[in-house]
User: Which sequence fits this backbone?
């Protein structure tokens, strides 16, 4: 995460604290069972990955996985793919998968971008990008996840009426997201009044990062866009 021993370029996988024994066991034993297919091997067949699922959802940069695990427990008939390049986050999600017996999550351990490109058109009902790394310096803006490329891909991936949720506690990143959303004519921002984006909807739990931001006096914006 930005500011916490962050490695600026995302070309490899990242590690912070050493994993606990349980996490190491889950990385060795559970991850191979729940890993999403390698996007380098071609287009991903979501129906084959989640037999019997009635919807598919994607979370990008799931951090410790608490939001992903919450949504997956709430909608057992939905197939969830989570992407995260930080090994400690992946290991935390695996603990949640085991503790809660979640069978509808597949994990992409790495950069979300190749995964996004390997997913089929109009296949997803939701995409979540919660507190993406802010990359505050102008020369690093091109590294931001929210971008014209991202909105074009999100428009391709979401079925009509699908939703894109983005959270950020960084005012400049909120403005940046809204600026790109305005140009992305396939989306409409669902907020009617300030309280719609200042207050989290009931099914949008606070992530670990969000709790930390609030503790430091920063309030997030909860942005929801609908695919037209
Ligand atoms: C500020 S943290 C927020 C984590 C989590 N969403 C939360 O709200 O607690 C940003 C996360 O995005 C992940 N990330 C950064 N670049 C990414 C990428 N290209 N693909 C997937 N995840 C990425 C980071 O590893 C980190 O876990």
Assistant:
């Amino acid at each position: 995460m930005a500011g916490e021993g962050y490695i600026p370029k995302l070309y490899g996988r990242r590690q912070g604290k050493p994993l606990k024994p349980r996490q190491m066991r889950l990385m060795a034993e559970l991850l191979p069972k729940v890993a999403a297919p390698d996007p380098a091997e071609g287009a991903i067949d979501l129906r084959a990955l989640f037999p019997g699922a009635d919807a598919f959802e994607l979370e990008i940069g799931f951090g410790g996985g608490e939001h992903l695990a919450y949504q997956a427990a709430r909608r057992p008939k939905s197939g969830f793919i989570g992407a995260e390049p930080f090994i400690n986050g992946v290991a935390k999600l695996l603990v949640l998968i085991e503790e809660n017996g979640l069978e509808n999550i597949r994990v992409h351990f790495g950069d979300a971008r190749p995964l996004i490109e390997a997913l089929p058109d109009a296949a997803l009902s939701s995409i979540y990008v919660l507190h993406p790394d802010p990359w505050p310096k102008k020369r690093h803006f091109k590294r931001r996840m929210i971008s014209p490329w991202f909105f074009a891909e999100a428009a391709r991936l979401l079925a009509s009426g699908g939703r894109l949720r983005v959270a950020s506690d960084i005012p400049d990143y909120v403005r940046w997201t809204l600026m790109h959303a305005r140009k992305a004519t396939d989306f409409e921002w669902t907020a009617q009044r300030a309280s719609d984006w200042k207050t989290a909807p009931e099914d949008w739990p606070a992530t670990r990062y969000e709790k930390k931001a609030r503790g430091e006096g920063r309030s997030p914006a909860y942005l929801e866009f609908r695919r037209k």
Q: What stands out?
A: The chain has ten helices and seven strands. The beta strands are 55-60, 78-83, 105-108, 124-130, 158-168, 187-189, 221-227.
